[in-house]
Amino acid sequence: MAADGKLPVALVTGFLGSGKTTLIASLLGHPAMGETAVIVNEIGEIGIDHHLLRRVDERTVLLKNGCLCCTLRGDLADELRDLLSRRERGEIPAFTRVVVESTGLADPAPVVYTLLSEPVVKHHYELESIITTVDAQHGLSREESLRQAAAADTLVVTKADLGSASSLGERLARLNPVARVLEASFGEVEPDVLFAPAEHPRKVASFDADTGHVHDDVRAVTIVIDGPLDWTAFGIWLTMLLQARGSEIFRVKGLLDAGSAGPLLLNGVQHVVHPPVHLDAWPDDDRRSRLVFIGLGLERDELERSLAAFNDAALRG
Amino acid sequence: MLLDQHWAEQDGGRRARVFRVKLANRVLDHFGLRLDDWGGRIYVLHDRKGRSAVVDNLGVLWVEAERLAGRALDPLDPGLVYALGS
Q: What CATH code is carried by the domain that includes residue A35?
């Protein structure tokens, strides 16, 4: 359980046939998964009996002023609330983690939005990580799979026994330099490895380049701002950018110097941004603000110039 | 649905809110729009034709600004970037 008493939720996503169900079935057979509730779309495909396995029919609720990624997964919110109620009534065993499987075509952003915005859910649960499976044989062939890979904190290359896992691993590291990449043959990854704490600060700090095009016009770019970043200016800039270019920005992650001793950790999937977290210390000696964007047609210089202009306007008062 | 404070407005407080409106207006002015704080709880966005919209937070602000302006408001717009620097 997290330090704030919330139950961690891991979202497992991946394109159709990418080995997501095999990965979950393999996890369910592991003794360490006894206290994990698992919410899937189709129990039959899992083929394993597990006392905390639940099924939902994906149902999204488009909110007023909402775009496609800012939709509430009503089915998931209902199921997460029901798990809490049934646990409190003693109808199901206590659980310490929830794993949610998304459908192959699903965009991960609505699940993130649901966990961050539904009042009961966000009080009791927190998104621990997004785990995306990518098939070593077919790789990143569709925009949906690129979006899912960009959203990941952990990328699992599946069917590593069948395809060229190492070259795919290199492409994934260029597409999403802030995620770690694991390999799984026959869907097998140890839960301790899969659910290990994310390495957000170190990953963001270690990436400082424009990766070039990975697929069509999708790329990861890092922008760097020297000197303190005005938080008000940054908030105005990023909310405006995500509204104007949200469909082109798959992911944003950053370490920001907002004037405190440690940085602010920022993490967003499309329009959906986690509340920033204050870290006690920087991961290395470089104290400059760094933001990694993954998306379509992004130009580092253009982003950097724009943010600097907003920041300078704030510093002038 | 009740939503907590927007992620970009977590440095709450009156002074921060006043500064947020001032800075947002430097940007909005470029597009012919103006933002007012209303009682420290919500904002009201106006265009030059007398139309207005109530907005709860910065996230919704740009949705409504885009609607009133009739076009996307892009922070990467070179004209805006130049205007902010002058």
A: 3.40.50.300
pLDDT digits (tens, 9 = 90+) for A199-230: 666 666 666 666 666 777 788 999 999 889 99
Chain-chain contact of A310 with B62 (C-beta, under 8 angstroms): no
Same-domain check for residues A180 and A240: no
Asked if the structure places residue A1 within a domain, the reply is no
Cβ within 8 Å, pair B62-A238: no
CATH number where A277 lies: 3.30.1220.10
Sign of the dihedral through C-alpha A7, A8, A14, A18: negative
Nearest to A65 among B6, B63, B75 (CB): B63
* pLDDT grade for A147, boundaries at 50, 70 and 90: confident
Q: How far apart are the first and last CA of chain B?
A: 41
ipTM of the complex, rounded to two decimals: 0.95
> HSE of A280 in the Cβ direction (CA atoms, 13 Å)?
0
Nearest residue, CB atoms, A238 vs list B8, B16, B61: B8
Whole-prediction pTM value?
A: 0.84
Same domain, A161 and A231: no
| B79–A contact, CB cutoff 8 A | no
